[in-house]
Each structure stands twice: as structure tokens, then as C-alpha cells.
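Protein entry
_____________
===
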Amino acid sequence: MRLQGLLKSLFIYSVFTCALIGEFQAQEKAQNPLIYADVPDMSIIRVGDTYYMSSTTMHMNPGVPIMKSQDLTNWKLVNYAYDTLVANDAMNLDNGQQTYGRGSWASSLRYHEGVYYLSTFSATSGMTHIYTTKDIENGPWELHEFKPAYHDHTLFFEDGKIYMIWGAGELSIVELNADLSGVKEETKKILIENATAPIGSNIILPAEGSQLFKHDGKFYLFNIAWPRGGMRTVIIHRADDIMGPYEGRLALQDQGVAQGGLIDTPEGDWYAYLFQDSGAVGRIPYLVPVEWKDGWPVLGVEGKVPETLDLPENKSLIPGIAHSDDFSREKGDGSLPLVWQWNHNPNNDLWSVEERPGFLRLKTGRIDTAFVQAKNTLTQRTLGPVSSGTVKLDVSQMKAGDRAGLTVLQKKYGIIGVRCDADTKQIYMSKNAEDGGVIATVPLNQNEVFFKIECDFRNRTDKAYFYYSLDGKTWNELGSVLQMQYTLPHFMGYRFGLFNYATETPGGWVDFDYFEIEDAIRHSK
């Protein structure tokens, strides 16, 4: 009986141990979403055992971020394709102009004969821009540009020629000049008359977002479309020749995860990289396993997007995608980490991390009456499922009419900051004018103040909470909760932003002691 009891105990122990090991191994696997932050319109390549990814940041500068990964799961920013896309009134926020939701859109990243090619297009410039370099992480980039702006295009190299495929619904192809100075007009042709046909005619969005790949001698063209009453859907067309004819099929329709392309690992595994519209945090990347059957890439696990992947587990997005900054620099280093991007083109004469070592100084140089028209708002991504941004601010040199503080930026933005009126200062919480402008104020009788904004994106709750502190320890909620909303006029996920602008007299400044981002929230109700 004792032996039977011992064997039973050993059996129970082994079952329990196996269950624990299985749970631990599951936790070690990569999780979808791959990146819980706004990284839309990805284009991914593999060079040896290293992956590079480009994405869209539209009106933010520097632009077209380059990210790097050694395992296809964990990514970090390593470069941008440009410092400024173009210098016109819209991109400069001059003369009442702006280019929210435009700037540069979906990029195509390629590697060919030792050269990296990154192309994008812009309604702001009206041009197609192609950047080339032999060193994707350090540059320099050489710019080639021409008109018009070819919508959602993909670059492809075949038989010594460079092609571009673009369009929406009706997809076209053209050969580029060898020096990338433009296109050979005589080579333009319609490639697929109705690329949306595989999902029918009742649609919201025709097939676009083209990305072309070649595997085992066949060409595979990825597109996204959106059936009315349905969800974002992956369509794939296949051909034996780059010029067609192409046959198409619906490739994935699950959770709205769509738009992207194919990537393989050095071990021979295949994945589709795609993204999902996920509310106010933005458009977030997913990976979907791919199997090849009958000459077609088959996406998903029984047609579904899996929660886990047979890849190394995801680590924190901090510091690779977002990063705290105490603004301390080595002497002579006046730069900003890659996680920071300016809202539109900055005026580089009006900011510094050197004038007061250990601080970011934002100076005013003109009068702005609207927050969204203000120069030099410095931003970085919010993170899901929850995140917070905190700043410490010295406001002793503000002038009457100045506004400075911390924001979560989208069309329906929220602010907590300081406004200086005549000889008095107030802490204020504000929403966009559509929600009534200033919501609440309290007097400020000291020169240093702390602000925090907490964002809750869980289950698309999409709420932001606003706090101030006079000592960095005791926090007070101010104003009302902001119901964040992803809107097409800004066309990007919410961003934390540091700002300072003048409404009466330019020449004042504020000093940010630090910005701290955490993937946690502690104070929200």
C-alpha cells in the first residue's frame, strides 16, 4: 500500500511538474501583439541574421524610423531616413498651415547588391522619395525624389531592373530610371485591374498597401482591403512573371490584422508581419505563422492569428522603442535619443540640452494662439496596454501668455501644464477646443512643478488621467478624464509631448529636468 501511495504521489508530482514546465515554456514564447505601440505600415527585410524594419510616422520628424532586431521579436530604433522631409509652410507649421495625418506614408524597405533602399511618398511634398545608403544604421542617406507621389508603392528588383507597383483597387507597375531620378513613362501599365475582387465589390477600402515578394520563382503581391460590414483583410495575388497575369485569393480575415508582407528566418521558418488598428494607442504589429501549400503562403493557425509564437519572448519596449530621458549629456553632445520626434519640423535654434546642462530648454520664438500650431513640441510614443509619462519642469522664465507642460497628442488631445498670465501662474488641465478648452486650474506659487499623464488602453478603454505634484511625491488629479480617440485627421496613435509656446510675447523659456516613461499606471481610478 505504501508503494502504491508513493507511486501515486510521484505520478501526481510529475503531472504537476510537466504542467508547470509547459506554462513556463508558454510564457517564454513571443506574444502577439508583437509591439504594443504605434508602428504601422511596416516593411521588413532580413540581411544575414539581422532584421530591419521601417514604419510610418507621418508629420513627425525625423521621419521613417528604422528598427533593428536579432530575433524578429524584440526591436530597437537605430536610425531615421531623414531629418526633415520637406521645408514648406505645412511641414514648418507656418502661416497657419499644418500637415497632420500626411507627411510621409507607407515605406518600402529593400536590400540589393550591398545597398539599402527605402522609399516613401508624401501628399505634403507631392513627391515620391527614395533614400539609399550602404550603412542602414549610421547612414548617410542619399535622397532621390520625383513627382508624382505613388500611393502605397512597393519597390522590387528583377532582372537588372527596378520596378514600382502602386495604387488602390487598380494596381499599376512602372520601371524606374537606373539612377532613381524618375520613371520610364513608356513602361507604365495596369498590373491588376481590380485587386479587390477576391473579397467582392461591397467594400469600404479597395486593395492597397502593396508589398511584393518572390519565392521559388513565383511573385506574391500582398494587399489590404476592407469589406463593408467586415474587417481589414489580407489579399494575396500570385504570378509566374512580375508583369502577370496575377490570380488572387483572400489570405487572412481575423481580428482586423492585415497589411504587410512576408519574412523568413535563417532557419527557414516563415511569418507574415501585419498590424491591427487598436484604438487610441495606434496601429500595432503582429506576426502570423506562414506555411507554404500548393505554391501559396497560408497565413495563421487554422486561419486565425495566434496569441503565442515559436520565437523568443517579448521584452520591454523600454528602452528600444520608448525611453526615459534625464537630458544629461556628455560635454559637446547636444543630441536627442532616437525615441524623440518633433511634431512637424522643429526650429533648432529654439531648443537645447546644452544651455543648461541636464535640462531640455524649450524657448519661444513667435506667437501661436493654438496648441496644435505651436513649434517644437517634442514627442514619443505612448505604450499599451498601460503607460505613463512624467516630467519635472522649471517655469521661472515664462513670460505673460506662455503655455508649457505635458500633453497626450492627437486631434482630441489633453494637456496638463502651466499658463502664465501677467504676474500670476496657474496649473491648468485642458482638452481640445471641441471639449470646452480649459477644464480646471489651480494657483502655482513656486517655480518647479511635476506633471504626469497616465494612459489606459486595456480593452480599448482609451482613457487618459492628468496629475500634478508640487514635490514629486504627492499627486493630485486635475480636470477630467480624456476619452482618447484615434482620428484620421492626425492618423497616428497618441504620443506624449513636451511643449512650450507663447500667445503674447516670445522670448521666454522653460527647462524640463526629466521625462520618465513607464509601462505602468499607479494613480488612475
User: Anything to note?
Assistant: Helices lie at 2-28, 89-92. The longest strand covers residues 203-215. The radius of gyration is 25 Å.
